Every structure is written in structure tokens, then in C-alpha cells.
From TrEMBL:
Enzyme Commission identifier(s): 6.3.1.2
GO cellular component terms attached to this protein's record: cytoplasm
GS catalytic domain ranges (all copies): 106-356
Pfam families assigned to the protein according to its UniProt record, in alphabetical order: Gln-synt_C, Gln-synt_N
Name of the protein: Glutamine synthetase
Length: 356
């Protein structure tokens, strides 16, 4: 008699050319990932060769019940680490039947910015540091914390090892390998300052692909925590008080910044970010004011600052960038629940296109 795991792990390529495509999209809250699967007649590697599909937008907060159909446009393909074989994950964005992007489709406007000739010529690179917190499913309290109580103060947990310092490593390592399998350019992981909190980094990724890869990495993480019976939260300050919040620090460079004389280009770009600080903060994630307090390695939300090697600044320039006279900088303001399509395209638009 076959076990359930035997059936879950069936290798379809032994008996059929057909594959399963899991279509992924972002729901009405802007953070709720949704997905459903369909059978295709054979392997596909080009998103433009995939069929469009539809879903009930009235059940995701994206359409009224009397006109509920929302159309999924396939945009990026990744290998499926859960079903394996030739099966795929498909990142989609969402449109009305008339072909108009729906209001929660942030990818469409981001793609327009990245296809701007000025932006395309600069080849913007991104490295996104996605922090998140693992919670015990029944209590919504961080993994490894005593129920209703608190662990010892922060200090030993950052990049820590040991059963009293590191909680959820099996989930984190599974996620790391699953992302590599999927074709996501995940560049590393580490335990964070608050116990039960972790980080993965995606990049360097160019343009719109940064957003695609972060969203699919989030999807894979949610699927793995589902299997593990653990909850993942991207809340920027899951525990009030003297505990670190969770951000999505965004490292950024353009071709001009990476070339000789790039440090002056970086300083000019930071000056532009300063002038649009309020607009960026408004788009950098909900609840970010609970995190950006000027404490716990953050700058105050109302004040823009930058510095070399300064983790308490809005924007940090690396010591190596200063020494080399070229490189990249890190925008430390985005919250862990930011939309990477919004943040990456906004940084490009402000630093390349916008003329003060």
C-alpha cells in the first residue's frame, strides 16, 4: 500500500509528458499570496508561451461579486521545488478582462519604469535583505520563545548557533535550498538580532526580476512553513518594546555607480532620495513607523540621514564603496512587508528619471 508521501513524490515524467504549473499572484491586501495549479501538455520555459488564466477576484478583495473575473498574465517561470521534475511555479500579475491592470497590480507600473530607456541603460542592480519572523502556530508568539514569556535580552541570537539561541534552522535551510533549486538568485541567509527572526538575501538581480524573485521566495517560504506547521510574519515590528523590528534593506547600484567616479553619482542619488523622503516612506511598507524609531539599528522615520558604515542612518554607504570610489548603497528604510516591485522601481525612478 502506497504512503501519502509516496504519492506526493510521484515522478510524473515516468508516465506522462504533462506538467503542473502553479500560478502565483498577489491578493487584495498587497501581501497575501495566492496560487492555484493547472495541467499543461508539456514542459514550458518561456512565460509568453503560457496561457492566461482567470480567478474569482471577489474572493481576494480585488473585484466585485457581479463582475468578479480577474485575468492572470504569466510573467516569470521558476522550477517547482515541491513537485520537482519539469513542473513550474509561475509568477503572474493581474488585469481586468479588458486588459487594464487592476489597482493592486504594482508590477505593471514597475515594468514601465524599468523599460524606460534611461533606466534600462543604467542596468539597475538590487540586493534585497528580506527579514521575517517565525511564529508558533497556536499562540502567534515567536518560535523558541516561552509561551506568554520572553527570552533573554538580544545579543547572543544574531547569527547564533545552539538550541537556546537558534530557532527554526530546518525551515530556513529548506527554504535556502528550495530557492536555489527554483532558480532564484538567493545569495545568503542568517539568523537575526531578535530570536525567531531570520533573513534571506536575493540578488544581485536586475530590474523587474528583483521583484519577481523576492515574491516567489516569499511564496516558497510560506509553503515551507505551511508544511512545518509554523507561521511566518513579515510584520515590521512583531514584538513591541526592546526588540529589533524587521526590514527589507535594499542595496542598489547603477552602471554609473559601479564605474570609475561612481561615488559622486551615489552621493547625487542619495541627495535626490533625501528630497523625496516622505514619498518613499509612504510607499515603503505598512506599520513602518513602529520600526523606524531611531533605535534598534534604524533612523527616525521623520528624518533622512546617510553615512558611511552607519546602520543607524536612512541610507548606508559601505566602507569599501567609499575606499574604491564606486559601488553601491543600501536604503535601510523599507519595511519587511514592502512590495519589492514598488520599492525597486521607485528607487530607480527617483535616482535616474526624476529631475528635482
Amino acid at each position: 500500500m502506497a504512503c501519502l508521501t509516496d504519492l506526493v513524490n510521484l515522478n510524473l515524467s515516468d508516465t506522462t509528458e504533462k506538467i503542473i504549473a502553479e500560478y502565483i499572484w498577489i491578493g487584495g491586501s498587497g501581501m497575501d499570496l495566492r496560487s492555484k495549479a493547472r495541467t499543461l501538455s508539456g514542459p514550458v520555459t518561456d512565460p509568453s508561451k503560457l496561457p492566461k488564466w482567470n480567478y474569482d477576484g471577489s474572493s481576494t478583495g480585488q473585484a466585485p461579486g457581479e463582475d468578479s473575473e480577474v485575468i492572470l498574465y504569466p510573467q516569470a517561470i521558476f522550477k517547482d521545488p515541491f513537485r520537482k521534475g519539469n513542473n513550474i511555479l509561475v509568477m503572474c500579475d493581474c488585469y481586468t478582462p479588458a486588459g487594464e491592470p487592476i489597482p493592486t497590480n504594482k508590477r505593471h507600473s514597475a515594468a514601465k519604469i524599468f523599460s524606460n530607456p534611461e533606466v534600462a541603460a543604467e542596468e539597475p542592480w538590487y540586493g534585497i535583505e528580506q527579514e521575517y519572523t517565525l511564529l508558533q502556530k497556536d499562540t502567534n508568539w515567536p518560535l523558541g520563545w516561552p509561551v506568554g514569556g520572553f527570552p533573554g535580552p538580544q545579543g547572543p541570537y544574531y547569527c547564533g548557533i545552539g538550541a537556546d539561541k537558534s530557532f527554526g534552522r530546518d525551515i530556513v535551510d529548506s527554504h535556502y535550498k528550495a530557492c536555489l533549486y527554483a532558480g532564484i538568485n538567493i545569495s545568503g541567509i542568517n539568523g537575526e538580532v531578535m530570536p525567531g527572526q531570520w533573513e534571506f538575501q536575493v540578488g544581485p538581480s536586475v530590474g523587474i526580476s528583483a521583484g519577481d524573485q523576492v515574491w516567489v521566495a516569499r511564496y516558497i517560504l510560506e509553503r515551507i512553513t505551511e508544511i512545518a506547521g509554523v507561521v511566518v510574519t513579515f510584520d515590521p515590528k512583531p514584538i513591541p518594546g526592546d526588540w529589533n523590528g524587521a526590514g527589507a534593506h535594499t542595496n542598489y547600484s547603477t552602471k554609473s555607480m559601479r564605474n570609475e567616479g561612481g561615488y559622486e553619482v551615489i552621493k547625487a542619488a542619495i541627495e535626490k532620495l533625501k528630497l523625496r523622503h516622505k514619498e518613499h516612506i509612504a510607499a515603503y511598507g505598512e506599520g513602518n513607523e513602529r520600526r523606524l524609531t531611531g533605535r534598534h539599528e534604524t533612523a527616525d522615520i521623520n528624518t533622512f540621514s546617510w553615512g558611511v558604515a552607519n546602520r543607524g542612518a536612512s541610507v548606508r554607504v559601505g566602507r569599501e564603496t567609499e575606499q574604491n570610489g564606486k559601488g553601491y548603497f543600501e536604503d535601510r528604510r523599507p519595511a519587511s512587508n514592502m512590495d519589492p516591485y514598488v520599492v525597486t522601481s521607485m528607487i530607480a525612478e527617483t535616482t535616474i528619471i526624476w529631475k528635482p
